[in-house]
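**Archive record**
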Amino acid sequence: MPLLRRPPAEPPADRDPFSADPEGRRRRRATLGGLDAGAARRPPEEAAGAGNKRGSLLRLALGTWGQRGTERGAPAEAPAGGGGEGAAGERRESGGRERDGGGMERESDREPLSVLEILELIQRRHLVAADAQIIALEAECSLSPSPPSSPSPPSSSSSSSPPPSPVPSGGRRARDVALLYRALLSQLWAVVAESVAEPPPAPAPLRAVVAVLEQEEAADARCPPGARPGRPRALRRRWGEAVARAAGERLARAAPAGGLGARLAALAARVVGDLGVVSGRVAPEYPPEWGAAGVYARGYHRALGQQVRALAQRPLDVAEMYLLLDWHSNAYPSNAYPSNAYPSNAYAREVLGHPEVGALLRAQELGPLLPPETQRDLERSCIAAVKAKVEVAVAQELQLSEDRWPEDVTSQDTEDGLATRVTGLLRAHVDRAPQVTPEFGREMAHSLLGVLVTFLHSFQRRVERFLDAPGDAPPPEATPGRAIALANCCPPLRALAERLAQGGRAESEEPRRQAHAALDRVTRACGRLLTRRLFEELKPHFGKLMKRRWLTSSDAFDAIVMLVTGFAQTLRPLHPEPHQALVSELHRRVLIEYVRPLLQGRLVCASAKARARVAARLGDEARQLRELFTRLDSASPWLHSVVPRLRELLVLEDTAALQMEVGALARDFPDVRRRHVAALLDARGLRAQGPRREILGVLQDLGGGSEPAPGPAPPRCRTFFAELAAPRPVRCLPFQLRLPRLPRRGPARPRP
């Protein structure tokens, strides 16, 4: 039912009707002036409408009754619905009464307010009353009969013309309704935007918004679809859009013009503040079934995503890309991450850690802030930028360190610093990337493993070039310190390569193998330099072994043990890993040089007694070597059985026992060949062809012939006999040659 105006009491004729409301007089005069100016610019056919509006305004100003009658509209609104108390609110409650000729009082026809009066209600934010008047005006517009058309002679085309529309031609009232709705929605969404502002506004405007939305939903329900233009208006859906739009405007104003960190911090503060206001004050004003808290949370999430996408389009450095990716992956709960699996980043502490806001956000099904394509592009850009940056940094560190090698070769801290700086450059990204997502961490680890392999190849080549040909010959006392310092770089780099391979993808196995191989070569190069001088000193003592004097004197062997023990003292500054590798390599090379004279045929036992003496000496020295390298923590205990196996081949007499011992030797040392066993048989004095063939046949059956068997070669740390060159077997004739004795000739006499 249209709202009615209450007839005011008749004022005295000499009283100013606006004395009680001078502000109303000023507004009405301004409005009348605007109408006069607008009417002068309008076409003649619209001038009558403007005149009617001006007349309505004049009636409103003078407090008189409108004389046009309408059908019944919406019932009058309660004052609590939207704060309609005021001049217009008083007028909507008025009603007129007339007396008929019989003296009986009857109600006159009631009419809605004019367009300008409704607009004044909107501007004063009496939104519920204004909406009720607009609905009544809309109903009047839809029920108004079309203007009578002038009679025209029937023609053939008149039958096909559409029937006249119920809306008057020109649609002046329909346009008025559309403009009024536009003004009403503008005020509604302004109230929605102001509801989260500080200081808090009065709750009445927000309640008026709720009442208007419910009133419009009821009007949509009464109107069948398509019956009226613009219906259904679906203001509940547009209210959600207005919430998101207001959130976007507030976040856009909150972001300062500084760096990325300052912008994200400001956005976090604004989200926390606004959603805290929503949770505590705004959401209770809406009906529970509306889910207002979720609407605001989704609106702010969508607005924050727009801000983050805009920031992602800017040129960013590595730290800013990390920060943005961290925000994207850990800002809100999603299907990929449980609600309690957030790393300790600033946003998680400030937003999700808030008691009210965190619970509000986790209760919603919120997607990621960035689209998947934008996220992948940002991750690839970050990985590429990190790879380029780290490659340059580690190359510079290596060059600076290499320049200092000739100057300060004894400083172990310098070379330790190289490994520390390189691993620090890579570990910073290895630790940071998995905090974004596990998959991003694996991609970053695989990329950095490639960078590390490239660095290690360069490091290996430079170390080998420097140690093999150092240019100016360093003093002897500086050589061990230089090699030890370079070898100490390997353990932290090896540990980093292992970590990158374990945290990377399945394709990381080959780069891992290459990294370990490069570090092994660096350690061996340092070991060669460290042991070069040692074996130069050991060479004359090894030359005295396996001779007749060796059977009666232990001076040569004692000198070997003393030199090796003294050399082990120089390896104390080594880290445990390279120390163990160098001691194991020293163990292998000492035993190779110890066994070499035996296989070269320096000593041939012509009797069982001689074999027993040689076997006893070999057993005693094998025990001393085992004790020596056990004290030095050798990691090659398999070498302890080399000399005892060879001793058994010298002392055993039974052919079957010799065959079993050869089989055991071939099992423990797969690189033993036929020529090695033949040289041992020569050393024990076994010349009979039958037993030799039986013994060597066992080795042939086990695959240890004269040539290596096809297949992968054993690792270098497990090779022993392959580095021992045995003499070729000597072919003996089956009979003894008797050379004739030649006559002794004196010096030739000179001719006369």
User: Anything to note?
Assistant: The chain has a mean pLDDT of 75.
